[in-house]
C-alpha cells in the first residue's frame, strides 16, 4: 500500500481514537441506549408540536430516530463529539431521508452548546460529569424544561419521576428549575 494512503489511514484512526477518548473523559463513552429504554421513554413523553429535544451525547442517533417517528412535528437535536458514532448517525439519517427530516445532528461539544431553547434534554452520561452538567443546566434551561437522565440519578436532587422497566436502566426525570432551586 502506498505511503500516503497509510499515513491518511493513520490520521483517520488517530482522530477517531482522540475524539472517542475526549468524549469518554468529558462526559461518557459511547454506550447506546437500549431499544426497550428508547421505547419506554417515547411512550411516556407527551411532546407538543414544535417542541425541541436535545440528546446530549447522541451516539448513533438511535433515540433521536425513535423519537422522530413518534413526534414528527418536534425538532430533535443530537450532540456528539466522538467521530465514529457521529458518522454512523449521519449515515442513518441520510438513509432515513424524509422520515428523519426533523433530526439535526451536530458534531459539537455539549458543554459549548446553548441549551436555552430546549423543551426536553436527554442525557446518558457518567456521574463524574454531573457537577459540570448541573451547573450548565442551572444557567441555561427553562424552568419547565424536562430533563431525563439515564442510569444514575443526579446527587442532591429529587427526581419527579422514575421510569423503570423489565431489564432496563432507570430513567430519572427532573424539571429545569430544579437545577437552580435544588428542589
Task: Explain what the structure shows.
The longest helix is centred in the first third of the chain and has 24 residues, at 3-26. 39% of the residues lie in helices and 18% in strands. It has helices spanning 3-26, 35-44, 62-70, 83-96, 130-140, 178-181, and strands at 52-56, 75-80, 103-107, 120-123, 146-150, 161-163, 171-175. The protein has one domain (3-181): 3-Layer(aba) Sandwich (Rossmann fold). It is of the alpha/beta class and 183 residues long. α2 (35-44) runs parallel beside α3. It is built from six helices and seven strands; from the N terminus they run ααβαβαββαβββα. β6 and β7 form a beta hairpin. One of its GO terms (biological process) is methylation. It comes from Candidatus Uhrbacteria bacterium CG_4_10_14_0_8_um_filter_58_22. The chain crosses the membrane at residues 6-31. Keywords: Membrane, Methyltransferase, S-adenosyl-L-methionine, Transferase, Transmembrane, Transmembrane helix.
